[in-house]
Automatic annotation (TrEMBL):
EC number(s) per entry: 5.1.3.15
Region of interest called Disordered, as start-end residue ranges on this chain: 1-25
Summary of the function given for this chain in its UniProt record: Catalyzes the interconversion between the alpha and beta anomers from at least three hexose 6-phosphate sugars (Glc6P, Gal6P, and Man6P).
Claim: Isomerase is one of the keywords in the record: yes
Organism: Myriangium duriaei CBS 260.36
Domain of life: Eukaryota
Active-site residue numbers: H186, E291
Protein name (Swiss-Prot/TrEMBL): Glucose-6-phosphate 1-epimerase
Molecular function in Gene Ontology: carbohydrate binding; glucose-6-phosphate 1-epimerase activity
Length: 317
């Protein structure tokens, strides 16, 4: 088990003030703060498909051809990757699973809401709202169970505050047999113009470049710009904040908690053409994935052990 230095504070019922509204219907949970911020989570994959600021700005990119009916992983928003990132290695216990595992293609249960005035995303005096989702073997298809027959329990918490959006994944092994996993939140950020967009906070870090046959490199400058396809796994980052800037101005921050790695992905023109549910085809100009996770190695969980990690997303748009 990996210890967590920075656990989010306990959620306590909010006192007074206008309360957030939460609706759960049609396989979707929507929460809105009295100040106007909102979030929408589809139970299929517990995928966050919308996160808006009080001014109405949508922070996430979702393909106009994304399947929202449970027939395919949702192309956009924040898919949850578990228990393997990317194509599973051939000689590993996850080898029979599809790319990025089963969490994003399973129907999660909505466990309920709670309010908090002490979450990392709440401004003082304002309440944040937390939505909890659960996934256990009973929610997973027989095919996926056969491919990965371990006992597990996942709890995914999405907390909306005026200061941002927090996602936390708690992974538990209630069985007796030890297993390994990787996890990642595959956030698709919306950007007005990829040619003016850069990612900062990745300097001096070792990364595997998937575009260059997984070869290893060291990142030089502190800024990654986009002039073609980018698909990199940055490993063991020291600094816990990765920032997206547009025209040199802050757009988003991703603050990792107990997650060592960050994947940066933009499929560019050729990649978008090759992905059936990526629409519009020039949508790559309006998105960038900055994905916080632990994917460069494996986390091991003994029986009755647990692991918890997450991210806080901030928007300045
Ligand atoms: O098409 P998907 O299975 O959703 O994967 C989309 C992308 O996810 C990650 O960012 C990987 O690093 C990419 O290599 C992959 O193309």
């Amino acid at each position: 088990m990996v210890d967590r230095s920075n656990k989010p504070s306990a959620i306590s019922p909010a006192a007074g003030g206008p309360q957030p509204t939460v609706t759960a219907e049609g396989g979707k949970v929507t929460a809105r703060l009295s100040t106007g911020e909102s979030v929408e989570v589809i139970l299929y994959g517990a995928t966050v498909t919308s996160w808006k600021n009080a001014n109405g700005h949508e922070n996430l990119w979702v393909s106009s051809a994304a399947k929202l009916d449970g027939s395919k992983a949702i192309r956009g928003g924040i898919p949850v990757v578990f228990p393997v990132f990317g194509p599973p290695p051939k000689d590993h216990a996850t080898s029979a699973l599809p790319q990025h595992g089963f969490a994003r293609i399973s129907h999660w249960e909505y466990l309920g809401k709670s309010s908090s005035e002490s979450a990392p995303v709440s401004k003082s005096g304002d309440s944040a709202v937390r939505l909890d989702f659960g996934l256990t073997p009973g929610n997973v298809s027989a095919e996926m169970r056969k491919a990965w027959p371990y006992e597990f329990a996942l709890q995914y918490s999405v907390t909306l505050g005026r200061d941002g959006l927090q996602t936390v994944l708690e992974v538990r092994n209630p069985g007796t047999q030890k297993w390994d996993f990787q996890m990642l939140t595959h956030t698709y950020f919306h950007t007005p113009d990829i040619s003016k967009t850069a990612v900062r906070g990745l300097a001096g870090v070792r990364y595997a470049d998937k575009v260059l046959d997984m070869t290893e490199h060291y990142s030089q400058g502190n800024e990654l710009k986009f002039e073609g396809q980018v698909d990199r796994v940055y490993k063991s980052l020291q600094q816990n904040t990765t920032s997206i800037v547009v025209d040199d101005k802050p757009a988003y921050d991703v603050v990792r908690d107990n997650l060592t790695d960050t994947v940066v992905w933009n499929p560019w023109k050729e990649g978008a053409q090759a992905i059936g549910d990526f629409e519009p085809k020039d949508g790559y100009k309006n998105m960038v994935c900055v994905e916080a996770g632990c994917v460069s190695g494996w986390q091991s969980l003994e029986g009755n052990d647990g692991f918890e990690a997450g991210q806080v997303l901030k928007s300045y748009l």
